[in-house]
Amino acid sequence: VTYIYHDWIDVIGDKKRTEYETFQATTKAIEDIKWMIRNISGELGIAHVYVTSDHGFLFNHTELQESSREVLPKAKGYNRDHVRFVVSDEFEGKVDGYKMNMKDTTNIDTDLQIAVPRAINRYRKQGNVGVQFVHGGASVQELLTPVVKFYKNKKELLQVVTFKRIDQTDKITSGSLKITLLQDQPVSNESKSAEVIFGLYSDTGELFSNEVKVHFNSTSSNPRERMFDVILTLNSVGSNASFCYLKAFDQQDKAKLNPLGSNDLIKISSLMEIDEF
Asked: Which of 47, 63, 93, 147 has its CA 20 to 30 A from that of 218?
């Protein structure tokens, strides 16, 4: 079991000078956790992820009214006070809010007592203390925390087989380019097949040839049986260019925004140029 602790909401909310940025901090935390789940499930192959919290919180964007403030109980002996709770050996005089024994609310065998303000009120506390973002009280929002279970099918977690180009051709002299590709791993229980589009393109992404789809789906343990030949033929635009790039894209990448590995510079030489030379 691996535990990952994310504390950004508290880091921002617990400081008086930044507590009004709680919404932005919450949004960032959600995006961070989503990114983390995608990466640990994809890169590490983890199928089960639980997302929860150690506590909830209250947040008021508008300034609190005086009617939402209560007198901080006067503690005797041990004292730990906060705008949403006070823990003490005992309390002097009247307690605003609710008073209870800690052992009645937890599994801790102790004589300590707890005081909490009513509803979502805050105790008045001296000093540079934030009151818009708070937690530690007895409201439902603070006590109940969600548990989100994320499960990804093992089949979806399989790594896609990789490939590499094993020929050395870097010039087109006859209008076509033949390349040889090697599927690095056989398709197995741990690796799934890949469908990849190959083509010749300009430096701005204009297509200079036909496109060929290669299905890397060999299950053979013999590397020779995992080799694929591809022939790319220049179109009329590519035939008049002096160079191009060999690129590969996942079949699902319709916009061709994320090339896969290969981005080789290929020189284009016409037969006329060769004769003159």
From this structure: 47
**In whole numbers, what is the pLDDT of the chain averaged over residues?**
91
Whether 259 is covered by a domain: the verdict is yes
According to DSSP, the β-strands at 191-192 and 159-160 are: parallel
The answer to whether residue 2 scores a pLDDT higher than 90 is no
The answer, yes or no, to whether residue 264 has pLDDT greater than 70, is: yes
Structural domains counted in the chain: 3
Task: Give me the domain span that covers residue 107.
Answer: 66-120
CB-CB contact of 23 with 132 (8 Å): no
Residue 145 shares a structural domain with residue 31: yes
Listing DSSP states for 135-159 in one string gives -SSSSHHHH----EEEE--GGGGPE
Q: Between the CA of residue 259 and those of 245, 254, 264, what are the distances in Å?
A: 11, 11, 11
Structure tokens at 102: 């800690």
| The two structure tokens encoding residue 229 | 């030949």
